[in-house]
Specification:
Elements (H helix, E strand, L loop, with lengths): L22 H25 L9 H20 L5 H9 L5 H27 L7 H6 L15 H23 L4 H25 L5 H9 L3 H5 L3 H22 L9 H6 L1 H16 L2 H21 L5
Helix pairs in contact: 1-2, 1-4, 1-8, 2-7, 3-4, 3-6, 3-10, 4-8, 6-7, 6-10, 8-10, 12-13
Length: about 300
């Protein structure tokens, strides 16, 4: 049985660190949130008429991001996007194993959401070819771009857009109460604005999981061009994550929302508590022994967390 690991960027409403959350609940939250984003982000443009739609598809996707983060952010951190998870990994806010599990859960959730939409399309007699319908929401460049955007333009826009979204997430989540209040609104609005640009170029999703989900159920050309929408956003996320990591290493204050970092200092807090208690109630020799034991626990914890070589 694995030891529960606190969710990154998870805070209580009053800004205090949340209690540790097991990995499985966090993965379930990431998968369900990704499913929700796929249904909203792909379903609105699939089943609506742009001229008469009361909510543009880009705004609908942004609102879905905000809603999902508000609903599940306190459990998993509310990534729902492998690019955001990679940014957290490189910024030092999530461990590599958990990041890989997050990405897998996000991909599964997005695929299930797209599968549900594909199944609905198959039931509609007015749509004879469901894959052709999915082509309208699949990301593409060149002849499959609305404005015939070349590969270079799409790569640059995907890279820049993903970097912006990851930077907004990392910056907003580092504020007090970030995931519960600031981050959902900031990330949702940023995502909606960028999607408005991306959709006019070639349905750019700025989300590798959503790109995979739409490509799998589209025509063959979407899978052939999929690599662009995997590599470019992950590269942009890596840039943003490394920038935040460098900023923290060079002296910026550690994010308030980094709950695991706060949890990791528990052994040091225990040592302080022991010192206070023994100063009043215990002989000097016993006090020294207990302080040494507490110090050893702290050093062992730092070693297994990679803080000591």
């Amino acid at each position: 049985m694995s030891t529960p690991v606190p969710a990154r960027d998870a805070l209580q409403p009053d800004g205090t660190p949340a209690a540790p959350t097991g990995l499985l609940p966090r993965l379930a939250a990431e998968a369900f949130g990704s499913l929700f984003l796929a249904v909203a982000g792909l379903g609105v443009p699939l089943f609506s008429i742009p001229q008469s739609s009361p909510v543009p598809s880009a705004l609908a996707a942004g609102l879905a991001v905000t809603a999902a983060m508000l609903a599940f952010g306190h459990i998993s951190g509310g990534h729902f996007n492998p690019a955001i998870t990679l940014g957290h990994l490189l910024a030092g806010r999530i461990r590599a194993g958990a990041a890989a599990a997050y990405a897998a859960a996000q991909l599964v959730g997005a695929l299930v959401g797209a599968l549900a939409l594909f199944g609905i399309l198959r039931t509609l007699p007015s749509i004879p070819d469901s894959r052709t319908a999915f082509d309208t929401v699949a990301a593409g460049f060149g002849e499959h771009s609305i404005i015939q955007a070349p590969l270079a333009a799409v790569v640059l826009l995907e890279l820049l857009g993903a970097a912006i979204i990851v930077a907004v997430f990392l910056g907003a989540a580092s504020r007090e109460g970030g995931v519960r209040t600031v981050a959902p609104v900031a990330v949702g609005l940023s995502f909606a604005a960028l999607l408005q640009v991306g959709q006019s170029v070639g349905n750019l999703p700025f989300n590798p999981a959503r790109a995979v989900a739409s490509a799998v159920f589209s025509s063959g050309w979407a899978v052939e061009q999929l690599w662009v929408f995997l590599v470019a956003p992950l590269a942009g996320a890596a840039i943003a994550g490394l920038v935040f990591r460098i900023g923290e290493v060079t002296g910026s204050p550690a994010p308030v929302a980094d709950v695991e970092a706060a949890h990791d200092t528990g052994a040091d807090d225990d040592a302080d508590d022991v010192a206070d208690a023994v100063a009043v109630n215990e002989p000097a020799a016993a006090a020294a022994a207990r302080q040494e034991k507490a110090r050893g626990v702290s050093e062992a914890q730092e070693f297994f967390d990679g803080k000591r070589s």
